[in-house]
Specification:
This protein is an alpha/beta fold. It has two domains: 222 residues, Spore Coat Polysaccharide Biosynthesis Protein SpsA, Chain A, CATH 3.90.550.10; 72 residues. The protein has an eight-stranded mixed β-sheet with strand order 7-5-6-4-1-2-3-8, with helices on both faces. Strand 1, helix 1 and strand 2 form a beta-alpha-beta unit. Helix 9 runs antiparallel to helix 10. The longest helix is centred in the C-terminal third of the chain and has 33 residues. The chain is elongated and about 90 Å long.
Length: 321
C-alpha cells in the first residue's frame, strides 16, 4: 500500500539556531508516530543573512525528504508560505510549522488523525500564549474583529498552523493574491474544519522576526482582504463627526443668540468647527482608503509572488538543484 505523503512547510529568516532542531523534531515525530506516512519537509527561506541557508544545504544533502526554496530577498512569511504551498506535493499539507517550534510538532499526528477521518481542514487553536497582557489583548481584539467583519467565519485564535487536504491546496493554488492572508484564504474556501487546542511553547533560541509593526501589518491586511466593513465604518464615523461639528455650531449660535455670550473670540468657533469637520472626515477616510488602495496597487502591478534564488532537492520537479 502506497504511503500518504504529508508536506510540512517551514518559513525561515535568520533561524540558524533552530532549523536543525526543527528538521530533527519533524523527522523523529514521523518516524515514531506516523511510520505509515511519507514526509516532505519544505523550508522556504527569505534571504537569511546568517548561516540558515548553509545549514539547510547540509540538511538537504543528508535527507532527500527535505527541500528548500531560497528567495532573493525577504518577501514576508505569508508570501513565502504561499509560494511553498504551490510547490507542495503532499496529500495533505501543514501550512506552517515555525522553525522555533512554538507551535508544537507533537500536534501534527493529531492533525493527521482528524484528517484521515475525512476532515478537510484541521487547525490549531492557540491557548496559553506566553506574552504581555497588552499584546494578548490586541490579538484577541483582532481575531474577533476579523471574524465579525469578514463575509465568512474565520476561526478565532487560529493562525496558519493547520493541516489542509490536497483538495484545499488545489483551490488555494488558483488564488492570485500578491498580499496573501493565508488563514483567511483557507477559511474562504468553505471546506469543513475542526479545531484542536494547544499551548504555544516558549521560543528556546534565537529571536523572532515578528514585531509589533509586522503584527499590525498582518492585521490590516486581514481586515482589508476579506471585509468591506472598515469602509462602512469610516462612512459612519465621518457622518458622526460631521453631525457633532454641526451640533456644536448650532449650540454655539443659540448660546450667543439667547444669552449673548460667546465661548471664544469671534471666528474661533467657526475655525474649530471647520477643523473638526474636515480633519476628522479626511483622516478617517484617507487612512482606511489608503489600506485598500495599497492592496489594489500590489495586485494590479502583477509582480511575482516571490523571486527565487534557487531550489534545493527539487531536481525531480524543476531541474534545479
Amino acid at each position: 500500500m502506497m504511503k500518504q505523503l504529508i508536506t510540512v512547510i517551514t518559513p525561515t529568516f535568520n533561524e540558524e539556531a533552530n532549523v536543525a532542531r526543527c528538521h530533527a523534531a519533524v523527522r523523529d515525530i514521523f518516524q515514531a508516530e506516523l511510520p505509515d506516512c511519507a514526509l516532505e519537509h519544505i523550508f522556504s527561506d527569505n534571504a537569511s543573512n546568517d548561516r540558515t541557508v548553509e545549514i539547510l544545504r547540509e540538511i538537504c544533502a543528508g535527507d532527500s525528504n527535505v527541500r528548500a526554496i531560497v528567495n532573493r530577498r525577504n518577501f514576508g512569511a505569508e508570501r513565502s508560505m504561499l509560494n511553498a504551498l504551490r510547490a507542495a506535493r503532499g496529500n495533505a499539507v501543514v501550512v506552517l510549522l515555525p522553525a522555533d517550534l512554538q507551535d508544537p510538532v507533537e500536534m501534527i499526528p493529531k492533525f493527521v488523525l482528524e484528517w484521515r477521518k475525512g476532515t478537510k481542514i484541521v487547525y490549531g487553536v492557540r491557548r496559553g500564549r506566553r506574552e504581555s497582557f497588552a499584546l494578548k489583548a490586541c490579538r484577541k481584539i483582532f481575531y474577533r474583529a476579523v471574524n465579525r467583519m469578514a463575509e465568512f467565519p474565520i476561526p478565532r485564535d487560529v493562525g496558519e498552523f493547520q493541516l489542509i487536504d490536497r483538495e484545499v491546496v488545489e483551490v488555494l493554488r488558483e488564488f492570485d493574491d500578491r498580499r496573501p492572508y493565508l488563514r483567511g484564504m483557507i477559511a474562504s474556501c468553505g471546506f469543513p474544519g475542526i479545531g484542536i487546542e494547544y499551548t504555544v511553547a516558549e521560543r528556546k533560541s534565537g529571536r523572532s522576526s515578528m514585531n509589533f509593526y509586522r503584527l499590525v501589518d498582518i492585521a490590516l491586511n486581514g481586515l482589508t482582504s476579506f471585509s468591506v466593513v472598515p469602509m462602512r465604518l469610516i462612512l459612519a464615523a465621518g457622518i458622526i463627526i460631521a453631525t457633532l461639528a454641526l451640533a456644536y455650531s448650532i449650540i454655539s449660535f443659540l448660546v450667543t443668540l439667547i444669552w449673548f455670550r460667546e465661548f471664544a473670540q469671534p471666528g474661533i468657533a467657526t475655525l474649530i468647527v471647520g477643523l473638526f469637520f474636515f480633519g476628522g472626515i479626511q483622516l478617517f477616510f484617507l487612512g482606511v482608503l489608503g489600506e485598500y488602495i495599497l492592496s489594489i496597487h500590489a495586485q494590479v502591478r502583477q509582480r511575482p509572488l516571490v523571486i527565487e534564488a534557487e531550489r534545493i532537492n527539487f531536481k525531480t520537479d524543476s531541474g534545479n538543484s
